[in-house]
Amino acid sequence: MPQARNTQISITDTPYYHCMGRCVRRAFLCGEDSATGKDYSHRKLWIVDRLRELAEAFTIDVCAYAVMSNHYHLVLRINADKSKQLSDGDVIERWMSLFNGNVLINRNYIRHP
After folding, report:
1. Do 76 and 16 contact (CB within 8 A), yes or no?
2. Rounded to 5 degrees, what are φ and ψ at 12?
3. 4 inside domain
4. From the DSSP assignment, how many helices (H) and strands (E) are in the chain?
5. Residue 5 belongs to a domain
6. Using one digit for the tens of pLDDT, what is the confidence trace for 78-95?
7. What is the bridge-based pairing of β-strands 60-67 and 16-22?
8. Statement to judge: residues 60 and 98 lie in one domain
9. How far apart are CA 6 and CA 4, in angstroms?
């Protein structure tokens, strides 16, 4: 049964978390798929690059990771000190670096050089 994030994570108890994700329905993440003969090794670099980008935007430190053929493991540290130093504008800019915003956010919150 799903639980609310605030019942699963307590930065005061520990900032470190082991996370994992897996493919379903025999989907292949990385390496050579023996069923189809297709090689998906190039995806590992995509995953590592995206992980780096997400970690920077969300002030998460990646302590360790492993990307396997149909799943991955991460050991993450929530960098609370770094996140407390961010202004509201910084948070919005980081979010917008990853996701599209709406007109109101673009007009009122994004810093223009």
Report:
1. yes
2. -70, -30
3. no
4. 5, 3
5. no
6. 999 999 999 988 988 888
7. unpaired
8. no
9. 5
Nearest to 28 by CA among 77, 76, 74, 71: 71
Residue 104 in this model has a pLDDT that exceeds 80: no
Which amino acid is present at 46?
W
Distance CA 70, CA 44 (A): 11
Whether residue 1 is contained in a domain is answered as no
What SS3 state is found at 76? strand
Q: Are residues 85 and 105 in the same domain?
A: yes
CB 22 within 8 A of CB 71: yes
DSSP-assigned letters across all residues of 17-71: EEEEEE--TT---SSB-TTT--B-TTHHHHHHHHHHHHHHHTTEEEEEEEE-SSE
pTM attached to this predicted model: 0.75
**Dihedral-angle region of residue 75 (phi above 0 means left; psi in -120 to 50 means alpha; beta otherwise):** beta
- Cα 94 to Cα 112: distance, rounded to the nearest angstrom: 14
Joined tokens for residue 53: 């980008």
